[in-house]
Design goal:
- The chain is mainly α and 378 residues long.
- It is built from 22 helices and no strands.
- The radius of gyration is 49 Å and the shape is elongated.
Length: 378
């Protein structure tokens, strides 16, 4: 009879009947429909059924009775297979703060499991990133690290990502993350501890370059850590290349020449030859010639001198062509005017015509009177 009353929506009658027969599971469902959430929670305790707790919890969430919902939720989250549905129910309705509060309260339960710690870490990464680091430091061993790693990366929580990589023994990824995001993720002590554990040797040299770019004053500390693992020849060449680049960018000829001398003092003829081209524009050929001659390494310097010779010959050819063009232009004179045997000057007024002017036969200049002249003056 109680079930029939319940199905037909006669909840008050169903309440009385279920109470009389101590059917607390059905009574809790009935009280939910009546909006009597506190009584529903009390009945849920007596029923002690996961299904009943879910119904009571979800009803309290819909009624925004979050304190009571949390009481029901604490009886649900301890079941790993029920956790996902509970989280979705809260999240779909936008109750993130309430969900976080529920999981935080559940961490102290005796039956707390990995899923609870993991899901809370993911929620922190999305909605309360400032709390994630503390959570990980306390419970990193109780979370599903790969799952939380993905959440931290999606949320761009680089420091937390490095922390998890370190705990998960993904040392290469930890170092790469610190170098890619130094502002958020790099810490000197942590970097030196992890770099000694990486498997990829190339990361040693990338780390050296990283320190040269961002922390040059700490490069010696890093070298002390890496020295047992570095190829010393490659390391010296690495720094030689960097020194050459620095000298070239400094535009300081004296510095470049001192670097050349240092290479020769250290017996690094190959570096000497490379520096000749890296710092080509700063070097004086006479200085290079003297150094090469003194150390008997003309073969290493010869490509440099070939280039210098080519450059100077090109300049000389251009100057020669320019000088030839200038001389040709000076030799060009203005055209000589054509002089006729009979000059004719026509200007206004009789005074403009010189007395000796002879006009062609039969011609009289305007404004002048002149008797005709027969024949031509020879």
């Amino acid at each position: 009879v109680g079930d029939r009353c319940y199905e037909e929506g006669m909840y008050e009658a169903a309440k009385l009947l279920y109470n009389n027969v101590s059917n607390f599971a059905r009574l809790a469902s009935t009280l939910v429909h009546l909006g009597e959430y506190q009584a529903a929670v009390d009945s849920g305790r007596k029923a002690n059924s996961t299904r009943t707790w879910k119904e009571v919890c979800f009803a309290c969430v819909d009624g925004e009775e979050f304190r009571l919902a949390q009481i029901g939720g604490l009886h649900i989250v301890i079941h790993a297979d029920e956790l996902e549905e509970l989280i979705s129910y809260y999240q779909d309705r936008g109750y993130f703060e309430e969900l976080i509060g529920l999981l935080e309260a559940a961490l102290g339960l005796e039956r707390a499991h990995m899923g609870m710690f993991t899901e809370l870490a993911i929620l922190y990464s999305k909605f309360k990133p400032q709390k994630m680091r503390e959570h990980l430091e306390l419970f990193w061993s109780r979370v599903n690290i790969p799952k939380v790693l993905r959440a931290a990366e999606q949320a761009h929580l680089w420091a937390e990502l490095v922390f998890l990589y370190d705990k998960y023994e993904e040392y290469d990824n930890a170092i790469i993350t610190m170098m890619n995001h130094p502002t958020d993720a790099w810490k000197e002590g942590q970097f030196k501890d992890i770099i000694a554990k990486v498997a990829n040797v190339e990361l040693y040299y990338k780390a050296l370059q990283f320190y040269l770019d961002y922390k040059p004053l700490l490069i010696n500390d890093l070298l002390l850590v890496l020295s047992p693992r570095l190829d010393h020849t490659r390391t010296v060449n690495f720094f030689s290349k960097d020194a050459m680049q620095y000298a070239a960018e400094s535009k300081d000829a004296e510095l470049a020449e001192k670097l050349l001398q240092w290479f020769l003092e250290e017996g690094k003829q190959e570096c000497f030859a490379a520096c000749l081209f890296t710092c080509y524009d700063l070097l004086h050929p006479d200085v290079v010639l003297e150094l090469a001659w003194r150390h008997n390494i003309m073969d290493f310097a010869m490509p440099y001198f070939i280039q210098v010779m080519r450059e100077y010959l090109t300049k000389v050819d251009k100057l020669d062509a320019s000088e030839s063009l200038r001389k040709e232009e000076e030799q060009v004179t203005e055209p000589t005017p054509i002089v006729f045997g009979q000059q004719l000057m026509l200007t206004a007024g009789p005074s403009a015509v010189p007395p000796q002017a002879n006009f062609p036969y039969g011609y009289t200049a305007p404004g002048f009177t002149q008797p005709p002249v027969y024949g031509f003056n020879m």
